[in-house]
């Protein structure tokens, strides 16, 4: 290692934050290089100055002031205090979510609602379009494909799905 | 009996336990105060920022996940509050740093020491905020480069670079205080 490489890593060397192999190489270099050694000494002097910085004692009643502010923030505003002193909050989990997670939750609820409306669409149909329980049992959920145009892919799939094995063998 | 860890206390705080929060404040208030004071060099500012950092962890407790130690998590909040405060106020301009102490100013050792302390604070204040943060954290609570990197949100290699550049600047600004 040359002096330039050594000098760029001297702080990490002093803090023992370089790998063991590099540490040994640096020690070897410092053993024979008075210029780099004196730089180590100068860094240590600055470190000593920083360590000697005096800090006044912690202000009195610091924790009491923090706790007073914490209690003040934890309490709801006077007009918003819950009835009977209860702080039951069923949607607390939602309040604690991050904004993207809240949006995702809202989107999921919306999709679920739309899907529910779409799937229950036929329940409100009347007359001939209404599927009876017996028909529903036979259709096994394939009623979503009917009514379909006679020559459409959906119609072909429905015919295929609803044909029993016996019927298939007869058609062959 | 095993002492409750900081991470366990934070989980209790998330459930609304203010006594657990009080315990966290008592455990960390001294180091929080020292870090804030070293960073800001002003008692009123330091107390304000230290207090705000505790209130931030109270607010963030429900979202806290113990992926890093509480210490690192807390110092990250505190350090960024300090950096924001410095950026907003621009406490000191580089031009304010005196070149050297005039020894003829006073013979009183107390005054000389105060002057020396002021010089160190001014030299630190003249550093860019992230260099200043790296250098102060390096001298705080035995933090490793890996922990400092988590606090500052940079790589350990970048921390080494920040410390090295900060060290070079401080050495140049404090050379008049160094022993020959």
Question: How would you describe what is shown here?
Answer:
The complex is a heterodimer of chains A (172) and B (180). Chain A is an all-alpha fold and 172 residues long. Among the domains of chain A are: 3-51, no CATH class; 96-123; 131-163, no CATH class. Chain A contains 10 helices and no strands. Chain A is elongated, with a radius of gyration of 39 Å. With 180 residues, chain B is mostly helical. Chain B folds into 2 domains: 1-91, RNA polymerase sigma factor, region 2, helix turn helix motif (Rna Polymerase Sigma Factor, Chain: A), CATH 1.10.1740.10; 97-180, Arc Repressor Mutant, subunit A. The longest helix of chain B has 23 residues, at 18-40. Chain B is globular and about 55 Å long. The interface between A and B is large, with 34 and 43 residues.
Order of H and E elements of chain B: HHHHHHHH
Number of strands of chain B: 0
Uncertain segments of chain B of ≥5 residues (pLDDT<50)?
93-102
Largest sheet of chain A: none
Q: What do we call the CATH homologous superfamily of the largest domain in chain B? A: RNA polymerase sigma factor, region 2, helix turn helix motif
CA radius of gyration of chain A is 39 Å
